[in-house]
Write a structure and sequence with these properties.
Layout: H1 4-18, H2 23-31, H3 37-44, E1 51-53, E2 58-62, E3 68-73, E4 76-83, E5 86-93, H4 106-118, E6 122-126, H5 134-139, H6 148-157, E7 162-166, E8 169-171, H7 173-179, E9 183-187, E10 192-194, H8 198-205, H9 211-215, H10 217-223, E11 229-231, H11 234-246, H12 286-293, E12 300-302, E13 310-317, E14 320-327, H13 338-353, E15 358-364, H14 371-375, H15 378-391, E16 396-405, H16 406-410, E17 419-423, E18 428-430, H17 434-441, H18 443-447, H19 452-464, H20 469-474, H21 487-505
Parallel strand pairs: 5-6, 6-7, 7-9, 8-10, 9-11, 14-15, 15-16, 16-17, 16-18
Antiparallel strand pairs: 1-4, 2-3, 4-5, 12-13, 13-14
Helix pairs in contact: 4-6, 13-15, 17-19
Amino acid sequence: MVWQPEIEELAHRRKLAEQMGGEENVAKHRARGKLPVRERIALLVDPGSFEEIGALTGTATYDADQQLESFTPQAFVVGACRLNGRRVLVNGGDFTIRGGSGGYGPKATYLEEMAEQWRLPYVRLLDASGGSVRHFEEIGRTYAISNVLGVQAGKLLGMVPVVAAVMGSVAGIPAVEACISHFSVMVKGTSQVFPGGPPVVKAALGIDITKEELGDERTQVRKGGVIDNLADTEEEALAMIRKFLSYLPSSVWEMPPRVEPTDDPERRDEELLSVIPRDKRKVYDPRAVLDHVLDRDSFFEIGALYGRARIIGLARVNGYPVGVMINNPRNQGGSMDTAAGQKVVRFLKLCDTFHLPMIYLADEPGFMVGPEAQKQGILRAGARLVHVTGRSQMPWLTVVIRQLYGVAGQLNLRPSGMYRRYAWPSGNWGSMHIQGGTYAAYRREIDNAPAPAAKLAEIEARLQRLASPFRTAEAFSIEDIIDPRDTRQKLVDFVEAAQRVIESQLGPTMVPVYEP
């Protein structure tokens, strides 16, 4: 066979590439509870579907006869695969090779351009330390960095789903790329993410800090909201990626994928008649409400540990994928703070980009007030939310389950596009709460009364008699009040009707532009 020697060399080079950083480095990787990159990819993709691209890329040495002596592959593995039967591109960092540094170059650029041109979802399994000064010595010079990857990564956000999993200590460019995504997840106990690690912090600020203190889930998931979700294991993180992508089309030019429904679209749960307490001071379980109106077990929550006043996620209604929001009265009474506002803005842009109908179960007491909210920039966060809500285009259904107050309460309504609103009999609303707003409006009358407290209570009682949702319906200020048990049927009808509108909206959504 004429080309047998070359075929044998090809097999030999592939074998060298699969050894990654060598047995010792791989063993250290496993000892920390981390899987090698190819095992991660194998767990993520449909069995046997991964086709590696650029496996022979790396650094080789040759003897005097120009025969291969050694080969070190690039510090990341890329290729095409199938997830849930659909084609997807994957880029996996390999920390066993020089800590994953130096892995960004033509191969990464090629894959991101392929995601754009082929209109395919893009998954990053990040486990890389970014740049290294060791590279200066290897190439014999320093270099002026450019933002080629950042520009291309940003373009992808408006075209195809982009997902990032932080699978180890991630710094520099890979850390930024964790944020240039529609969904991100990190692994508890083994993952950290930061622009510069502890040695950089020490050199710049003189602070001794561990990588865990600097960038583990306490900082990045719970406090900063840099990473969306937290997984207990790498296997769970990869399962989250598969589930997230299952709700989204492969690109903005395709319809969101429907699955065969297994839940009765006519289901009417009696529990919905009692889920909202009559006493406004009592809270309820918002996730229980979702269970009653969405397809059973279909809700995939995003950002559960950050901005907890608002619960957001993807779900299905009669098999169709939708975006879902509900206020969380168990956290700040459900009041929108800066963190929740930032989370909701990103989520609205996600759903608008990929043409997912929005389902909002509203119980909004208003923007968070007070000095701490002011310091955190609640007004700017609120202004962004007002802008993004008003400019969104996806079909939008609101069900007012309890209250709508203030500017935040107004954001249940979008004045254009396909929109529908219902309210439960438990609904109440206004520019301000009667309790709290009464004194501001009737201050002189109350202060001049012989018994100010009694006068305040009298006026509040008088106003409360006007607060019936049925009076609002008489003026068509709220369109329809429904039996809560009919909510699921209303959702099913709306989402089915929305499919025709979505078909007319396919393609890039120019306003608002998706951003990290």
